[in-house]
Design brief:
By secondary structure, this protein is α+β, with helices and mostly antiparallel strands. It is built from seven helices and eleven strands. The relative contact order is 0.13.
Length: 301
């Protein structure tokens, strides 16, 4: 699944090509994309509006479209937000109008007044889109789904400590909870925990201040490294120009089971924590002593 660095990579690549352009036509080719809303509803709401910004919130990509003053007696007219989530296999590809439309798994087509088209492809059809009218609606939508942005100044060691206080969940599961920290997925959780020297089964509420500070820094470092490498392509992720990300070549532990740890040389192992494949060096990340009821027993995958 594309995580924060992959979505940010897409945003940075698309923004110069779509911001300030008019979205002449939005075509929803797969009703599952916007269900239960009918495709015609999204198409009518978004088509013809100018793109005033392309933003990201967690793993969501947000198209901000100018308000329609003619349709509503609001001064100034409220913006419209088209919020996309790529889920497991979604991609946004950039194509010129002259390019053939024989792109496999095409679900949505964005046609701009520049002649460019943005094509949303999704083999597994899990990607979603929703239209939100006005800033208040956008804020309510994200407030019910997402926690702090890890690349924002508000994500401090003290903020992390407040989120973790009293929680007995394994720290890996905590990092994957989008309601706590937005945008961190399986790849970057593994990489951050290794950088911080924390075992993924460690109950998050048991971490001391220095560990929480190290974890905060490791989360930011891992995400920034992923953005610098323009994301990780393991299966489906592609840049808008079709290129692959390169962060997979820089993994410290993720997907490296059986290989030596880059720090201590001990063999990296794969566990299942919270039903997720998890990679760890138990030399650099000492296994915690779990009391009854804390976390879950890992299994070697």
């Amino acid at each position: 699944m594309p995580e924060l660095p992959e979505v940010e990579t897409i945003r940075r690549a698309l923004a110069p090509r779509v911001e300030g352009r008019r979205l002449e036509r939005l075509e929803v080719l797969d009703p599952r994309f916007c269900a239960p809303a009918p495709p015609a509803e999204l198409e009518a709401a978004a088509s013809g509006r100018r793109v005033s910004g392309l933003a990201r919130r967690g793993k969501y990509l947000v198209w901000e479209l100018e308000g329609d003053a003619a349709a509503r007696a609001v001064e100034p007219p409220e913006p419209l937000f088209l919020v996309l989530h790529l889920r497991m296999t979604g991609n946004l590809l950039l194509a010129a109008a002259s390019d053939p439309s024989t792109v496999p798994h095409l679900r949505v087509r964005f046609s701009l007044d520049s002649g460019d088209r943005v094509l949303f492809t999704d083999p597994r059809r899990f990607g979603t889109g929703v239209v939100l009218r006005g800033v208040a609606a956008r804020e309510r939508y994200f407030a019910s789904r997402l926690g702090v942005e890890p690349l924002d100044p508000e994500f401090t060691a003290e903020a992390l400590r407040a989120l973790a206080a009293g929680r007995r969940a394994p720290v890996k599961a905590f990092l994957l909870s989008q309601e706590r920290i937005a945008g961190v997925g399986n790849i970057y959780a593994d990489e951050a925990l290794f950088r911080a020297g924390i075992h993924p089964l460690r109950p998050v509420g048991s971490l001391r201040r220095p560990q929480l500070s190290a974890l905060r820094d490791a989360v930011v470092e891992s995400l920034e490294a992923g953005i610098d490498a323009r994301g990780a392509t393991i299966d489906d992720f592609r840049h808008p120009d079709g290129a692959r990300g390169s962060f997979q070549y820089r993994f410290l532990v993720h997907r490296r089971a059986g290989e030596p740890c880059p720090e201590c040389g001990r063999e990296i192992v794969k566990l299942r924590v919270g039903q997720r494949g998890t990679y760890v060096c138990e030399g650099c990340q000492p296994r915690p002593r779990l009391r009854r009821g804390e976390g879950s027993s890992p299994t070697v995958a």
